[in-house]
Structures are given as C-alpha cells and as structure tokens.
Write a structure and sequence with these properties.
33 strands; 43 helices; about 15% strand; 7-stranded mixed beta sheet; single chain; about 1300 residues
Length: about 1300
C-alpha cells in the first residue's frame, strides 16, 4: 500500500521527535573545571555544587580576590558604592510609582503569549539599604526622600453598591506585589571601628563588626563579629518553601569523613558497601531500615524506584540472602565503628532512705537506661550533611519599622536571639584556655543544645510506654528541625521507670514503708530523673562545656565547639521534675516564686513584680540540709522537719543534676514555655470546657449545645489541614488533639455568637477575640519589637477579661460537670477503691510490730454531698506526685476541695451511686498554665519565637519511635528500638532523596499555576446558553470579551471590569474553536509574613474563596476584596484589529467569580470583638458576577457563615440549580465572617506588620495599625471585689464606646488586629 503524503509527514515528525528526545537523553551537565562528575539534570548539578570541593575552592579564591581589591581601594569605597546603588534603585522605584508626569499613566509590559504577566517587583523607598549608609548619601532630591504620593489625591468617599462594594469612580492603585524571598547570601560591609585609646591601663575590646545591606524586605543583619562562613549561601528557593522538604547537600567522601579517622575512611573507600558485601544488599537493607512499618503506595514506589530500578541492583547477588544475618552484620559494624555515636545500655543507681537513723540507706539499681553520649551526638551532628546549614556566628536581624519609621529588632531563630549572642560573646572573651593546648587558635563556636522529653504510649492498646529524651542544635534553622525526617532531632536517651521489684525492695529496706509509701515512691522517681541526667552530664561533657571540644566539621575545618544549654521543652509535670519542685506546693511555678493564691493575677502589677524580683534559683544549702535529715537522721520525707526547710519555695529533697554538675547554671532558665500544653491543651481547653457547661445550663434541653455542634459542622475546611472537618459533636471533645482545639478556637467566634443572652454574649465575643488573637501572636514564627509590645499588652488585657468573665458571667449560670467528667471521676474513684483494697507486699511481722493499719481498713474516698460555693478556693497545682500524670481533664493544675471519706458497703446503694450525681463546677483560672502566659514575651526575646522549642517537635518525633516499636517483637522493646535507630542512622544516605519536579524552582517563582490540560473542553455558546434562568450566566460572553480585551490592551482593572467596549471592539476577540478549557484547581503561590514561600489551592467546589487587593485607598476602606471562584478556565485567544499586537493565538487564564462585598455598618476588630463581615453581592447588581485575572489573587481565604444572620434566597433569585451554588442548594448564607485567625500569615495580613508582606505594609492606611486599643470594659482590675463593684459603670462605658462617632485621622473604622 502506497504511503500518502500525510503518512510520510507523520513519519517525518516521529523521526524528528525521536531524534530530539535522544538528544535530550544524551545531554550531560558538567561541573567546573577539574571536577570529573557529570549529571543528567540541572537540579542534580545544583545539589552537587553545594558541596563540591572544586566549586568551593573557586569561590574562596574569588572572595579572596574581591577582599583584596576592597582593601586596596579603601575601607570607605564599598559603603559608598552601596549607597549610590541604593540611591539609584530608590530613584527608579519612585519613577516607576509616580511616572514621568502627573498626567501620564505608567503601564506594565505586555504579557507573554503563553503566560500571564509576572507580578511587579518594586523596592519600597524605606527599605533600600542600611539606614546608616543612606544617612551619608548627599544630593538626594526631595522626591527621593519623600514617600511616593499621588499627584492628585482623592479625598471623597467612593460610591458603594447595595452590598457596600465600591464602584469604579475612583483612582486605581498598582496591583499587589508579592516579592520572592532572596536566597543569595547577604553582602557584608565592615563597620568602622573606633580608634584605639591611648589612655594607659585601659583594655579596649575591638570587634570586627559587620552589617549587611538591607534586602528587598528591608531586613539587614548586624554581626558583632565577622562570620567565617555564611550557611545561607547553600539555601535555594526550595528550602524556603513550606510544602516541600529542604534539600540536603550531598557531601563527597572526603568531606563526610573526619580526618581523625583515616583508618576507617580507608576501609570505607576500599569497600564502599561496608558492612555489606554488595551494593544490592546495601540498597535493600537501607529500604528495610527506613523506619516505616506500613506497606503504603509511597513505600512501594520507594522500593521500586530507589532499589529495584537502581542501576547497581543485581538480583543474582541476593542468593542466600537473610535479613537477620545482614542486620547482625550491620550491628557489629556499628559497635566497632568510631564514626558514629551509638546507644549503650547503662544501670542507674538511686539511694533509698531507710527511715531509721541507725540503718544506712540502701542502693537500688535501675536497669535499662539506653543513652548516647552528648559529646558524641554533637560531633556526629557537626559532621552530618545538615551541618552545611549550621550558623556559627550569631547576629541581630533589624529593619526599619513601617509604622514608627524607627529601627526595630526582628526575632525568629535561636542563632539570632539574645541568649545565643550572650553565650557566644562569653565564650570568645571568658573561656579558659584548654589545658591540652593553651595556645589554641582555632575558631571558637558554641553548640546551642536544646533538649526535649515527653513520655508517650507506644501502642493504642496495652501499657507499652517510652520516655525519650531528644537533642536538637539551635545552630540549625527551625524550619529544618521541624521536619520529622530531616534527622535534626537526635534521640539521646530512653528514660527507664522503676521496675515492679522496687516496691518489694523498698518495703524491706525502709522501716515505715507502709505509712510513707506514696512519699517514698514520689521521692525515688525524682531521684531517678536526676540520676539519669547526672549520668548524661558526664565528665566528657563537663570538660567540653568548660574547655570546648575540637571537631572537624563537615566543611573540613577544625573548630573548638563549646556546648551550651539553651532550652528544655517539656510539659508541666516534667518541668516540675527538672526544676526539682513540689508540683502541689505553695509556689508551683518552676520559673518564679509566685504563690499559688496569686496564679489568677495575670498581667497585674503584682504579678509582673513577682516574675522580675522573685525569679527561682536552686536552694542547694536547704536541699542538702533536708537530705541529711532524711538519709542520716531517718526523718520522714513528708515530715515537719523536712517541710519546714523546703515548703516556703516548694522545694523537694532532691539534688538538681544540672545545678550540681554546672554550678553556674540555673535550671529554671532553660525551662521554655510550651504553647501546645500550656495554652491549646491548657487555658483554651479549660475555657472551652466551661463554655460547654454554660451552654448546658443556659438553654433547656441542651438546645444551645446542639446548635453549637451544628454550627461547627457547617464550617468548611481550609488549606492543607489548616482547618479540618469538625466530625461528630465537638462539644463532646472525644479524642481531640491539640490541633483540634486550635481549630475550635480559630472558628469559635461565629460558632458561639448569639448562644448567650446579653450582656454575656458581648463579653464572651470580646474574650474569644482576645483569646484567638493572643494565640495567633504567641505562635508567630517571626516577631518584631512592635508585635511583642502588642503581645505584652494583649496578655495584660486577656487576664482582665478572663477574670471579668469568671466573676460577672459565670456566676449567672448553675454549671455542673459534663457527663464525661462525671464518668471520669467515677472511674478514678473505682480505681482508687480497688487499689486500696489490695494487700500491701510487706513483711507481716513488721506490720504487726509497728502497729500499722491493714490495707482493707483504709478509708474509701466518696464524693461529698454538699456542692462547693461559687467563691474560688485556694487551689494547688500540678499532677499527682504519686502517679506523675495530670488528674483532671481541662483543669490539670486545679485541685478540688477535699472530699469527705466514707466507707459504704460493697453492695450498698451509696456505692452504686458513686459518681452518679454531677457536681457543680466553676471556671478555674487558679492554674499554673494560666500564670505561664505572662512569660512568653520574655522567652521570645531571649530564645526566639516559640516554634523553635515547642513540644510539638517532640510529639512529631514520637512518630518514629512508635514506628520502630511496631518493628519489634515486643520483648525488651526499648533495646530493640535503640538498635533499629542505630541502623537507621548508619544507613541514612542523604543522596537518596524524594524525587523532585525539575521545574520546582520555576513553580515556586510563579505567582500561580493552572493546568494546561484540555481534557475538559467547554463550548462557549452552549455553556453560556444552557441555563437561561441562571443569573450567574447573565451576559457571560460580553463580560468575558470585556475581560480578555481589557487585559490584552493592558487596561487597569477596577475590580469589576477593565472598561466598557463597543460591539466592534468585542468582535476583535476570537476564542479558538469557541472552546474554553475547564480545570479543577488553581495553585496560588505567595510570600508569607516570615519571608518564605507557601501556596493555597483554589477549588471551586471545596475551597472557592479568594482575596485580592482592594482598589479603594480612602480612610476607613477595607483593605481587601473577596470573591467565590465558580470556575477555573484557560482558552486560546486571538486578538485582531488596529490595537492588536499579534494575531497569533495565546493562552489566557481567567477565573469566573461571584463577588462579595463588605457589610455596611458592621464594626469589627479588637475593640468590638468581631470579625470582618462580608456577603454576596445581589444578583440584580450588574457586576455581581465577573471574571478575575489569577495574577491579582493574593491568596485563598476562609469565610465562615454568620449563623446569627441565617440564610436567604434574595441574593440569587432562582428556583433552579445554579453554577453559583456548587452544592445544588437553593439559598445562600446572608453573610460570612472573614477568618482572620485561620493561620498566622492571614492574621499578619490584617495587622499590617508582616515582614514578608512588603506591599501589605501599606494596605491599612494608618500609621498606628499596631497601636493597642485598650478595652474600656476591661479596666484596671486589682481584685474580684473591684470587678463586681464596677460592673454597672463598665456597662455604661461599653454603651458609650459603641456609639456612632466620627472617625478620626488615625481610625479606619476598625481596630487592626
């Protein structure tokens, strides 16, 4: 059969395409001259260059040449050049903003044929270069020094639609600018040092201070000493993206081995598969020891792509393969290796008192401590590939505040905190010379050691538990440490528990075991904890702490490393153990000596004075005296002699290992705040629980609780797990984690609104608003001096509002226990009854001689029949010392009044009704967790933001521990876990990373990503006319033509259209084949407030709401517009006519949206305790539906229904299904609340203080967007009496505040959160 011309052409195309693909496969990317390595993708080459010694040597040579040139040209030349460059950039920015003349409109470049125009990237005038260098620039014109202003500002208020959305009769500002984070290393400039003083006997400390130039976000660094390495030079844009894990530099064999282990390195080079015999076995065992226990699709993909399809995989090498034999071979290699730290088993000795001065104390051996040496872990960490990102030289991050125009500090990482700066300077100036090398000239650096520990259950069923201690290094960025699989969280030790044989041992060696059993057990548990740390803080660590330890780092440079203890993350029971305090004492706080009777005084002057003046220290002399009384004189642990010594400061007779091993160290300094346990699972959980009690008492038949559950279930999800579905009934709080309570808080305002009568509803709304805002501020990953001042004032006011709600609203409701609380109390009582009924394992003769009461005669606790009064009792705080766990759900630190002990018969009706009645309960804020909220500002200033040392990191690390437990045979499981962890670390290969998309860099830089798929074509005319009664499709084609034509002619977008066009102009637009291509989602990339990249996925069915910059610039205007995306489209568009640039088809992307407008008359913000409220534009408005350029979307937003306003059919008048209602409903919510607390970035967009929101800083047109507005209702309250006496006055003040007054110049109609 003869070939047709079409067939020949097709064959030619196939041949050409095949040739092209072969050429691509044959393409090889080489490194610099001298490096023999070759790669097939640019991404692989970039990773290789991070650690290539040839690239590093060329960079060092180039830096040396540049440094010599700068020295030769003079020290003042570089700053002058930087100043001139900043001046030129500033002038260009002003010209771009103002244009050549007031009457000229500056247009952007034409968009390309296949992509939307990139977002403008302009440098703000107040963030160019360092302010000190700008101060010395001469000849700045007046227009350069002044902020950009429009030549003809418009002062009149804009016209509004029926829903309050502005119309088009006003000036349109530039579109939102989203700056890409700069990954280049900051340029360094030396600050001139003062001339040496000629005065005799004066020691002048000269530091080589270095200040970098300001970047596009206005941030610069101030190094007290010149850094020797800049780890941020290894960062890529992928590392600054939240969704993807950071890339790890792959070290060469020369870099990954320490020079101190030449023999081991030679052995490894001789056999690269050591300890295995082949590469095939190495690949397979590496996959088998990755710690995953589930056969998920990802695991199967990993097995296929990284093992079976590896070019070195040989099936014939697996003949006779046995996994057990290979694991034993690996374990022997680890035991003989000197390159890695490994777990070793140790026995801990604790001294048990005898209770008799004539009998010596006994020593009990506690087996099963699995631990690694701290110094070995530090050495291993400094040789890990992550060490390329370690910061050795601390610095301060500064910027010029856009609000006050003054220099302010930025707080984020540990290595830029005050604590790191102080310790680094102390090491440089005061560290003693090492005895083995008194003239050591190595660089001195500190290892910022951060500990974390938390007991956890290893399985859902059974009593398998583990108590791990983790070690992190603050030299590494918190964004790396937060990744569970990065290897930055090192397992240091697994704390053992007292074995079951201890009770028998103690009963034989203590003379009064039966009557003092609880005190002895509690004391020995404290002794065990401190003995473990005394073992970990061994002599090698103390020597390194004092003289440093020489480490050959991953870059091949030897440094002297000084370990320094910074933070210890733990929940309150472990804090009490570490601080060696009594958790139910008079002073329950591990950081200060506040009495427990003043725990509710958060924010009051008395509370602040105690935190400053009564900071806790370790009273070693009194503890030693108490121990002498116990161990030498035989006094009871809880006896009067001991308590007289320790009771005043809640001390315990246990020597603190940290204070004992490091005399200059205060253990209370390292006990960091813990937002997860102290607030989310502490204060907020307590408040939420009591609100449920109030709702039960407020409405008959629990109708208010039913409405609350229904509202929570109606709130939509948001983000990638940011807000999850509220399944079931949230009021029951069944199996809720901290993240679930966080979601409940972020959505609490619309859920609780209107469920209580006035004035309790208004008071509750203000309290919930302040609670959500305090949580958002405390959880920020980047703080400034301004945000910390706001957090400090919010803490004071939050304490006032909590006391006010407790004393004015709570007494109005007869609240009782929730059903689950009553059931939990009954279960505790039954367990206590069963425990007391068991015989004690003690020698019967001793019991008879000492006259001890038999166990069966002990009284059984029973709930009291008299309800407690509404007055707040004097509580005690902390967990039960006998069991070491919290004893009350939601109010773990509170203690109820003692219950009357009675002993009913076993089958009596009183016994059957035990716990059957529900006891009265009140809101208890006499808790240590409520008191802890006053320490957050100080800790952020000292150690950086709270996410660096949150217990959430240790909770994530538990996942690996539980996964390794699932791989054991459950016999001696902790030892097996240690072995498997050693194997996982030994086989950790940084070169084997998750496969990344080669275009990831481009995807991160793009503003938005919309699929080019054409799998869902839509005929334009059929789609527009298929539902003639649908208001959403009214004038669909003309509006689309106007939208596309306006974009092609580069007209400004006023929020509704790009302008009005005639029919002839519209006909110049042609959509190829009249086809639109509909896709499911659109990805919107944005720069977060903490200068990172993140994204939102817009889905018209599940996450349709987006926000864009409001064109309105007058005072009192809302900063954003909102829309619901009905469809995501792209089309091939042609433009003909006189104004056409090219008639060729070009791909244009657009969103079909339904607009929402701000509800008129609604006031919101901190002062009113209300969120912004918006609603759909009625369909009779000409611009209720339209099209939006995706490049104008800032990000997705979370809108929650205003349940109190109900639903309506007037906004979309149709009785048929509509495209505007994807859920096929026939009505709409009348209005929505904007979830400004949905995440930290969203909150900072409304506060106007986000560092990464360069354009967002001018969103809110007031110079005091962070100015705190004090709540008149929450006046200065010193005690409960003043609260009650001033209730009537505060209601009057509240009414006066809510009056409709004129807006001042500094008021924008709402209080910026």
């Amino acid at each position: 059969m003869a070939c047709t011309p079409d067939t020949r052409n097709r064959r030619h195309w196939i041949l050409w395409l095949t040739f092209f693909l072969l050429a691509l496969l044959a393409m090889v990317f080489t490194c610099v001259d001298g490096c023999p390595d070759q790669y097939t993708t640019p991404t692989s080459l970039d990773r290789h260059k991070k650690t290539c010694k040839y690239v590093r040597s060329q960079r060092q040579a180039l830096q040396k040449v540049r440094f010599q040139k700068s020295q030769a040209s003079g020290s003042k030349e570089a700053p002058a050049k930087q100043a001139r460059r900043a001046q030129q950039l500033q002038r260009e920015h002003v010209m771009n903003q103002t244009g050549p003349a007031p009457s000229t409109v500056h247009r952007g470049p034409c968009p390309s044929a296949d992509a939307p125009a990139p977002m403008d990237v302009d440098l703000p005038h107040d963030t160019l270069g360092h302010p000190e260098s700008e101060a010395h620039v001469d000849g700045l014109s007046e227009i350069d020094a002044a902020p950009t202003a429009h030549p003809n500002p418009i002062n009149f208020a804009p016209l509004l639609t029926a829903s309050g959305r502005p119309r088009r009769q006003y000036r349109v500002p530039n579109r939102f600018r989203d700056h890409i984070p700069d990954v280049s290393a900051p340029s360094l400039s030396t600050v001139p040092q003062p001339e040496p003083s000629r005065l005799p006997r004066v020691l002048l400390v000269v530091r080589d201070r270095v200040v970098t130039a300001a970047n596009v976000f206005g941030l610069w660094r101030d190094y007290p000493r010149r850094p020797t390495v800049e780890p941020d030079s290894f960062l890529t844009l992928e590392d600054l993206a939240n969704p993807e894990p950071p890339s790890l530099p792959v070290p060469t064999e020369d870099d990954s081995m320490s020079t101190e282990h030449d023999d081991a390195q030679a052995e490894t080079l001789h056999n690269p598969f050591t300890p295995f015999l082949s590469r095939t076995v190495q690949l397979l065992m590496g996959w088998a020891n990755n710690g995953n226990v589930q056969k998920s699709e990802r695991e199967v993909d990993d097995l296929v792509h990284n093992v079976i399809l590896d070019p070195d995989f040989r099936p014939e090498e697996l003949q006779g393969f046995k996994a057990n034999r290979e694991n034993r071979r690996l374990d022997r290699s680890i035991a003989e290796s000197k390159l890695r730290s490994q777990f070793a088993e140790a026995t801990i000795d604790i001294t048990v008192p005898s209770g008799d001065k004539n009998i010596r104390p006994s020593v009990f051996h506690v087996p099963g401590l699995l631990c690694r040496k701290i110094t070995d872990v530090i050495i291993e960490a400094f040789n890990d590939p992550l060490a390329f990102h370690y910061h050795f030289s601390p610095f301060r991050i500064l910027r010029k505040s856009p609000i006050t125009n003054e220099e302010e500090r930025v707080y984020s990482e540990i290595y830029s905190s005050d604590a790191f700066l102080k310790e680094h300077e102390n090491v440089q100036r005061h560290s003693p010379p090492p005895p083995d090398n008194p003239h050591c000239k190595l660089e001195k650096v500190i290892a910022a050691v951060m500990f974390a520990s938390d007991a956890t259950h290893l399985a859902s069923f059974g009593n398998a538990k583990a108590w791990p201690i983790y070690l992190m290094l603050g030299n590494l960025s918190k964004y790396f440490r937060a990744l569970p699989n990065s290897g930055a969280m090192h397992h240091l030790a697994y704390i053992p528990t007292l074995p079951e044989s201890f009770s028998e041992f103690a009963s034989n060696c203590h003379a009064k075991w039966r009557t003092q059993k609880s005190d002895i057990l509690t004391h020995c548990r404290r002794e065990l904890m401190q003995a473990v740390w005394r073992h970990l803080l061994d002599d090698d660590f103390i020597h390194a702490y004092k003289f440093g330890i020489v480490v050959t780092c991953i870059d091949g440079i030897q440094r002297r490393v000084y370990p320094r203890l910074f933070t210890y993350s733990a929940d309150y029971p472990e804090k009490a153990l570490l601080a060696t305090i009594r958790d139910k004492g008079l002073c329950p706080c591990p950081r200060c000596l506040v009495p427990r009777s003043l725990l509710d005084r958060l924010g009051l002057p008395q509370d602040i004075a105690i935190r400053v003046q009564g900071f806790r220290t370790f009273f070693a002399d009194k503890v030693k005296a108490a121990r002498k009384a116990i161990y030498s004189l035989g006094r009871p642990i809880g006896g009067k002699n001991v308590q007289d010594l320790l009771k005043d400061f809640s001390g315990v007779p246990t020597m603190n290992a940290f204070a004992e091993r490091i005399p200059t160290f205060n253990p209370s300094d390292m006990l960091a705040v813990d937002l997860l346990h102290e607030f989310e699972l502490g204060v907020w959980k307590t408040l939420f629980t009591h609100l449920i009690r109030i709702l039960h008492a407020a409405a008959p038949g629990d109708q208010a609780v039913i409405d609350l559950d229904k509202r929570y279930r109606a709130i939509s999800t948001f983000g990638r797990g940011t807000i999850r579905d509220f399944c079931g009934n949230p009021s029951e709080m069944k199996k809720l984690a901290a993240r679930d309570f966080e979601d409940l808080l972020q959505c609490s305002l619309p859920a609780f609104e209107g469920l209580l009568e006035e004035p309790h509803n208004t008071r509750l709304m203000k309290l919930l608003y302040h609670t959500a805002e305090w949580h958002a501020l405390a959880k920020l990953r980047m703080h400034t001096d301004g945000t910390l001042e706001l957090l400090e004032r919010l803490t004071t006011d939050f304490g006032k509002l909590m006391r006010q709600f407790r004393d004015l609203s709570c007494p109005e409701f007869a609240t009782v226990e929730l059903p689950r609380e009553a059931n939990a109390r009954r279960q505790r009582q039954l367990r206590e009854q069963a425990r007391l009924a068991q015989p004690c394992p003690i020698n019967a003769a001793r019991s008879t001689n000492e006259g001890d009461v038999p166990a069966a005669s002990n009284p059984i606790p029973h709930p009291t029949s008299q309800p407690p009064s509404h007055s707040v009792p004097l509580p005690t705080v902390g967990p039960n010392p006998a069991v070491g766990v919290e004893t009350s759900i939601g109010t773990a630190e509170s203690v109820s009044p003692p219950e009357a002990p009675i002993q009913p018969p076993a089958n009596s009706s009183s016994s059957r009704s035990m716990g059957g009645s529900r006891k009265p309960r009140t809101l208890n804020i006499f808790t240590v967790k409520f008191h802890f909220l006053g320490d957050y500002v100080r800790h952020i200033r000292l150690f950086g933001t709270t996410d660096s040392y949150s217990t959430q990191l240790s909770e994530l690390a538990h996942r690996m521990l539980k996964a390794l437990y699932g791989l054991t045979n459950k016999k001696d499981s902790m030892k097996q876990i240690g072995e498997k962890y050693n194997r996982k670390r030994a086989l950790h290969d940084p070169a084997v990373q998750e496969m990344r998309d080669a275009a990831l860099q481009e995807k991160l830089e793009a503003h938005h990503i919309i699929s080019k798929s054409k799998n869902s074509p839509v005929n334009l005319f059929s789609f527009a006319t298929s539902q003639p009664t649908d208001p959403a499709k009214k004038k669909f084609i003309p509006k689309l033509q106007d939208h596309l034509l306006g974009r092609l002619q580069q007209r400004e977008f006023d929020g509704d259209t790009h302008g009005e066009f005639t029919a002839d102009e519209r006909n110049s637009i042609r959509i190829v084949n009249n086809r639109l291509y509909r896709v499911q989602t659109a990805r919107i990339n944005y720069t977060t407030y903490d200068v990172r990249r993140d994204y939102d996925t817009i889905n018209p069915r599940t996450h349709p709401f987006v926000m864009c910059k409001s064109p309105e610039a007058t005072p009192g205007a809302h900063p954003y517009w909102y829309a619901a995306v009905l469809g995501v489209f792209h089309a091939d568009v042609q433009h003909f006519g006189a104004e056409s640039v090219s008639p060729r088809p070009q791909v244009m992307e657009f969103l079909w949206v339904r607009w929402l407008g701000v509800v008129e008359g609604h006031r919101y913000g901190r002062k009113y305790g209300q969120l912004p409220k918006v609603g759909f534009v009625p369909d009779d408005d000409e611009d209720a539906f339209g099209f939006l350029d995706p490049s104008m979307v800032i990000r997705g937003c979370h809108l929650m229904p205003a349940f109190i306003d109900g639903k309506t059919v007037s906004l979309l008048r149709t009785n048929h299904p509509s495209e505007a209602r994807p859920d096929k409903s026939l009505d709409d919510w009348a209005s929505y609340y904007v979830g400004i607390f949905v995440d930290r970035d969203m909150y900072m967009r409304y506060s106007g203080a986000g560092v990464g929101h360069v354009d967002g800083l001018r969103m809110i047109p007031t110079p005091s967007s962070l100015e705190y507005v004090s709540d008149d209702e929450a006046t200065s309250l010193s005690d409960e009496d003043s609260l009650r006496d001033s209730a009537d006055e505060e209601e009057d003040e509240e009414d006066s505040d809510d009056g409709d007054g004129d807006l001042s110049d500094g008021d924008v109609g709402y209080d910026a959160p």
